[in-house]
Design goal:
27 helices, about 675 residues, globular, mainly alpha
């Protein structure tokens, strides 16, 4: 049998019964080690019938993302000329067979996997029907490797701190302002205003004009044609800068590569997928889940290492025999111990931070002129490097991290100016004092500035985070290393979309403590005050006092948030306080015990039920406000495309400043002439 030969995975001298392992692991390389390395069992399940179809019974797992399966895919698609070496016990590494894409082998492995999938599905499907020649694929790989190495050299000269935390948040902030302005138009019925037209007038982008309308298919087609032309112009500009001259003269090659990147990568993957609201909300859910998991692990670690917290949990259950005075003394004792641990840890953190900031190197000096390394590429294929002029290579001056647009973007997204103006003013005052005040601690190259820069490079710009990210993207876009049904499925109805949006709001709310969320969204005046058990309901997405109705029973809260008990008359003519429940003599005994006295300590069932109901109402209202305030800014795919194309343009201009100084036609004429 042809399938019984072990191929490149020979058995390691195990028992005779382990020779059946290669037949089942031909599509799963990692299962060979586990099957051959285990001891044979005397159970009759070890040797199934020879005619049993074992391959279809195995479900599709995540083994296609492993390094062995990824290397096998790359060898099969991109190294077809080296398939004769597969009989060797130790095949040559991937980095010896293919040209390097970047300076890291782990990044190259994931990038080559994506390139192999694209070439297999969108090039070899039709090219192998024309000719069996394999040199075409090798040439494509060489061109892509040349472009990626040139991009890496340019990326090293880009200020990634400013790009990620200053310029990109500025675009997001502009999107938020434009969307909320378009959504909250001053026009009132019967005058109607199209929010998309208002947004497009605030952020004009020729590729997305005219504004599509659902009732006119010709306008939709015209906008799609303009967008396709715009994508092709972007790709042609990139090719004019990165491709060698001899490859740029090949019209067939430039047309093929340009069509692949403009339609498949930018059009299908970036513009049409990333701009979808459901995908943005799914991404926020995933990020919130990861952050919440890390926070839970860190909290559990601190709880296990802090004896004060463990012992503090014991006094929550107190027996009725204990006196109130003893309980207060015990609480005060454990609170003192806990505050002592907090103060000691805070002092230690401040001292370690100061010592670390003194040893950190200063941030690079603010430069206005980009320098180009002419010897960064090979001699055979030279990239296009025009003379470095100040006009073409001007970059924004570096600013302190405390002045980055990231902070104002977060404040605008959370609407701090509207909900808590005093907090916005206080934070602005602290920011000004740290940057301009005595010592300029947060000024450029100050102590806080260098410390923040160090943490950004250590936790955000760490190159080791890129391979796992590329692996996750490949698994989501190409499941089982082929185009198919992604794990992120779009909602099929408006009800599912609303449920996804509410689930995203719930995930974001879980990132902050409950008291902080309730205080910020005005569920009570202060966390320690007597909170209302009947929160006002209303569709308003803003915080603040709600408009009261004529019926006082509809809103049972006063201006301080304290409960207003309703007074009613019983059948005997006695007035009692009604706290959202009708209490009869039998009911009072059933709820408060035989004494009929309402408990004042913790443990009353009625009070607990009322608090739980109020908590649910507050949480539901807060989730609705997060839904209508924060998540609503990403609810229109057409408006999201403005943001996506703006981000793409900014990244391309920072990598290739020539695109901002010269037109596409001028670049091509300069290269070809």
């Amino acid at each position: 049998m042809a399938t019984a030969s072990p191929g490149p995975m020979p058995p390691k001298g195990g028992p005779t019964t382990s020779l059946k392992a290669p037949a089942t692991s031909s599509t799963n390389p990692e299962s060979v080690t586990s099957s051959t390395g285990s001891k044979p069992s005397n159970s009759p399940r070890v040797t199934p019938p020879p005619s049993a179809p074992r391959r279809p019974t195995r479900p599709i797992s995540s083994d296609f993302l492993s390094d062995k399966a990824t290397a096998a895919l790359i060898r099969r698609v991109l190294c077809a000329q080296h398939l004769a070496d597969r009989g060797r016990s130790t095949p040559a590494p991937i980095q010896d067979l293919l040209p390097p894409l970047t300076s890291r082998n782990d990044v190259d492995l994931q990038l080559y996997a994506l390139i192999a999938i694209i070439i297999k599905e969108f090039v070899q499907n039709w090219y192998t029907k024309i000719t069996p020649d394999e040199t075409f694929v090798a040439e494509i790989v060489q061109i892509i490797a040349h472009c990626t190495r040139a991009l890496e050299q340019r990326l090293r000269k880009v200020d990634l701190e400013s790009l990620l935390f200053d310029e990109l948040p500025e675009l997001l902030n502009a999107h938020i302002r434009a969307y909320r302005t378009a959504k909250n138009s001053v026009a009132r019925p019967p005058v109607e205003a199209n929010p998309r037209e208002i947004y497009h007038s605030l952020w004009p982008l020729p590729a997305l004009s005219p504004v599509p309308k659902s009732e006119d298919s010709s306008i939709i087609q015209a906008q799609a044609d303009n967008e396709s032309t715009y994508r092709q112009l972007l790709v042609r500009g990139v090719l004019a800068v990165l491709l060698p001259t001899e490859d740029l003269e090949n019209e067939c090659l430039t047309a093929l590569v340009g069509q692949l990147f403009s339609e498949l990568v930018i059009g299908n993957l970036i513009a049409n997928k990333v701009s979808e609201p459901w995908l943005i909300w799914e991404g926020l859910i995933i990020l919130a889940r990861v952050a919440h998991t890390r926070g839970t692990v860190e909290a559990s670690r601190l709880r296990n290492t802090s004896p004060a917290i463990n012992l503090k949990a014991g006094y929550g259950i107190s027996s009725p025999s204990k006196s109130k005075k003893g309980l207060y003394v015990q609480q005060a004792f454990w609170s003192l111990i806990q505050w002592g641990f907090i103060i000691v840890n805070s002092i230690r953190f401040i001292i370690s931070t100061i010592m670390l900031s003194r040893t950190l190197p200063p941030r690079s000096n603010p430069t206005l002129i980009r320098q180009v390394d002419q010897a960064s590429h090979g001699n055979r294929k030279e990239s296009y490097h025009p003379p470095p002029t100040p006009e073409a290579y001007t970059q924004p001056v570096k600013v302190p991290i405390a002045n980055f647009k990231f902070w104002s973007c977060v404040g605008n997204l959370l609407e701090i100016d509207t909900r808590m103006p005093w907090m916005s003013g206080a934070l602005s005052m602290v920011q000004w004092g740290a940057v301009r005040g005595p010592g300029q601690l947060a000024g450029f190259n100050g102590m806080i500035d260098r410390l923040l820069s160090h943490h950004i490079h250590a936790y955000v710009l760490d190159p080791t985070r890129l391979p796992p990210l590329l692996r996750v993207v490949r698994g989501a876009v190409f499941p089982n290393n082929a185009p198919g049904a992604s794990s992120l499925i779009p909602p099929s109805s408006d009800e599912q979309l609303a449920a996804l949006r509410r689930r995203c709001a719930n995930a974001l709310l879980a990132l902050v403590p409950k008291r902080v969320g309730r205080l910020y969204y005005s569920s009570s005046t202060w966390p320690w005050s007597t909170r209302s058990t009947n929160a006002p309901k209303g569709p308003s997405s803003r915080s603040g006092p709600s408009k009261g109705s004529s019926n006082n029973a509809a809103h049972n809260t006063n201006s301080t948030g304290e409960e207003v008990a309703r007074v009613r008359l019983t059948e005997d003519g006695k007035s009692v306080r009604d706290s959202h429940a009708t209490l009869t003599p039998e009911g009072s005994k059933r709820q408060f015990g035989e004494t009929g006295v309402q408990p004042t300590e913790v443990g009353g069932d009625l009070q607990a039920d009322m608090c739980d109901e109020a908590d649910d109402e507050d949480e539901s209202r807060i989730i609705s406000e997060i839904d209508t305030d924060i998540l609503d800014v990403f609810s229109d795919a057409y408006c999201n495309k403005h943001l996506v194309y703006g981000i793409l343009e900014l990244i391309l201009v920072r990598l290739m400043p020539e695109l901002a100084e010269k037109g596409i036609t001028e670049l091509w004429e300069e290269r070809l002439n």
